[in-house]
DNA sequence: CATTTTAGGTTGCAATTTGCAACTCATACG
DNA sequence: CGTATGAGTTGCAAATTGCAACCTAAAATG
C-alpha cells in the first residue's frame, strides 16, 4: 500500500503527507517564502534535480499552493507565487523551524524567525484553548470528525479501548 | 545533490525535512500519538511495508523522537514510545491537521482536535508576537541566526537585495 | 539581423528507495 | 513438544531520484 492511500478518508494529516511527506516539497515552499519565484532560482538555491523540481512545482500548482504566472516583462519567464493557502502555512513553518532548532539542531540554529517591525524573536508556537490557555500534549485529543468514515471511527474505538485514549504524554 | 545536503548548515527547516520530508514518517508519528506502540500495529494501521517501517523506526529512535523499550511482560515485544522531543511536536501536528482540513480537504475533515477536558475545538494555531498579537505572514521575517555559515548569510543578502526582503505576503 | 544567452522545461539512464512476499529467530502459549 | 506470535531481515520487481544532455521560444548582444 502506498502512503497516499492510507485511510482513503479525508484524514487531514494523511492528506498533508501528500504535500510535505515527500522529498523537497517543504524546501521548495521555504524558498517561495524567502522570495524565490523562478524555476532556475529554485534549482540553484536548493540544488534539486530539474526533473524533480518540475514534478514538485506542478503538484504544488495543482494543489493551489503555488500560482504559475507568466511574467509580463519577459515572455519566457514564469513566476511561481505563494497563494492564500500556502501563506497560511507560515505558522507551521515557523513552528517546525523552532522545534527543529530546539530538538534537532541542539540550539545551534542558522536561521531565526523575527517580527519584521520590531526584530524581536517570535515566541514558541503553542496549542491554546479557546480562552487562550496553553495546552500540553496530554490536554489534546483527536476525535473523528463529521466526515469520518466507519473505518476510521472503528480505528479510533480500537485506539481508545486499547490504549486508554490518545497518548499525548 | 540530495535533500539532506542542502546548506550543510544548521538550517532548522532543512534539518526537519530529514525527518518528515520523506514518506511515512509523519504518519508513524501520528500513530504514536494515537497510542500505537508495537511494530506489527504500526504495520497494520498504516499498511506500510515492514522493511520501510523498520528503517523509519530506527531513524526516529536515532533522532530521539522515539524510545525503543523492551516490554517487561513479554520479552519478544518492543515498545516504541514518544519522547519529550516528539511530544513537543504536537502543536505542529495540530496545526498541520487544521491547515490541511481547511485547504486540502475543503473543510471535510475526518478528524478534529479537541481539548480533552472540555471537548471544545482547538482554535487555529497562530504566530504571535511576544505581546500576544497575532502576526500575518508579512509581519514575519527569517534572518540568519548566530550559527549561520557565510554561505547562508550571503544567500539571505541575495534574497533581500533581489526580492525586497522576505516575501511572506 | 545573425549569434549567443537565458528561461523553463523534457528526455534518457544509472542509482536509490519503496512495495511485497517469504523467511528467520526468539519467546510465549497450549 | 508443537504451534503461534512479535519483531524483524532478505530478495526481487517497480517506482522515484539524481545527473547530464538536449530542446524550444524569447531576450540580449554586436
Task: Characterize the structure shown.
2 copies of one chain form a homodimer. Helices cover 42% and strands 14% of the residues of chain A. Chain A is α+β, with helices and mostly antiparallel strands and 169 residues long. In chain A, strands 1-2 form a two-stranded antiparallel sheet. In chain A, strands 4-5 form a two-stranded antiparallel sheet. In chain A, β4 and β5 form a beta hairpin. Chain A starts with 11 loop residues before the first helix and ends in a 6-residue tail after the last helix. At the A-B interface, α1, α2, α6, β3 and β4 of A face α1, α2, α6, β3 and β4 of B. β3 of chain A pairs antiparallel with β6 of chain B. The structure holds a DNA duplex (30 and 30 nucleotides).
Chain oligomer state: homodimer
User: Which superfamily, in CATH terms, is the homologous superfamily of the largest domain in chain A?
Assistant: Winged helix-like DNA-binding domain superfamily/Winged helix DNA-binding domain
* SSE string of chain A, helices as H and strands as E: HHHHEEHHEEEEH
Which consecutive residue ranges of chain A, at least 5 long each, have pLDDT under 50?
161-169
**How many H/I helices of chain A?**
7
> Class of the largest domain in chain A in CATH?
Mainly Alpha
Tell me the number of strands of chain A: 6
Largest sheet of chain A: 2 strands, antiparallel
Rg of chain A, alpha carbons: 19 Å
Q: Beta-sheet strand percentage of chain A?
A: 5-15%
Share of helical residues of chain A: 40-55%
Largest interface: A-B, 106 and 106 residues
Strand order of the largest sheet of chain A: 1-2
User: How many domains in all of chain A?
Assistant: 2
- Terminal CA distance of chain A reads 30 Å
* CATH fold topology of the largest domain in chain A: Arc Repressor Mutant, subunit A
